[in-house]
Fold this protein.
Amino acid sequence: MRILFILLFSTTLSFGQQTIYDTITSGGLQRNFILYVPASYSVGTSVPLLFNFHGYTSNALQQMYYGNFRSIADTAGFIIVHPNGTLDVTSTTHFNVGWGGSTVDDVGFAEDLIDSIAAAYNIDLSRVYSTGMSNGGYMSYHLACMLNHKIAAVASVTGSMSPYTYNNCNPVHPTPVLQIHGTADGTVLYAGTSFGEHIDTVMNYWSTYNNCTPTGDTSSLPDIDSTDGSTVSQIVYDSGYCNSSTELLRVAGGAHTWPGAAFPLAGTNYDIDASLKVWQFLSQYSLSNLNCITSVNAIEEPVSELKIYPNPANNYIIIESENSMDSEYVLISVMGQIIKTGRLHDHYTEINLSDVNPGLYFIKAGNKSYKIEKIR
């Protein structure tokens, strides 16, 4: 059970621009964060809240300057929270996304931050977003999976989904996702590693979950800076549930860097401003507009009258309904491949999975999607 915390900052009726260095107690630990409140903030108007998570080995202050959203917040009118990670067993700052045996409850920390900031400021709780660099991108996906009921949309810059996040993801609403990633990223490889999924796998997971178009619409963005050694393609999977989308800005030749950053590290793309792209994407969405269906992941809490079991499954799954069924189903891999099709009939349909490889899949039936896991 999370330890209750005491707010260490106070509210006033009006604000100038504020950068607040503060702490809360969460999970039995004193946790640090930096809050940025734009001068435009007024207690009479609810504003969005953006999490901006730093990368592995970095810290909140470095991320506030490197992945900088402050000038955007000044005009768009949102509050930014820059959480600080804790030290892992190698004394390196990190956020726990299932790596290396960390036991820190960073999901609880994020939830406590939302609650504490909302108690002190007029936050629009339907418009809480998360983004971050590298490990911060991983953490944003982690929140999309583990704190989904409080997070409207996420964006990852040079991050991915950890195997733990990927295998345990349990979102409850359509979740728009933006990924920005370089093909020459030598830290979080585009093609995946033991600690991160292939970026195409991540995109296919969310585009399938959100019921977006199966084939992304690809376009080339203008090569504004021909000297940076990289170009950007935009791949958009749209028309998902509740008008959600899944998007990828694929930086050909881009390294493990934040595009458009003021710090000109080698391999940085300057055709786009990642901070601006992230905010333009996230700000389109709110939880109030993403509740057009009760749930698109109905394994533990089935939507409508359908029940699917066992899950995880071995050689078969059963789809059961209180009412008689007569509709088509499609089994789809997280890479977007159609594995099996058939019809649901009567009250009870058994689907043979003995010829299906182990892994995560989606069953689509009517306008609903259900995540299942096939095991050996």
Q: What stands out?
A: Residues 306-374 form a domain with the Immunoglobulin-like fold (CATH 2.60.40.10). DSSP finds seven helices and 17 strands in the chain.
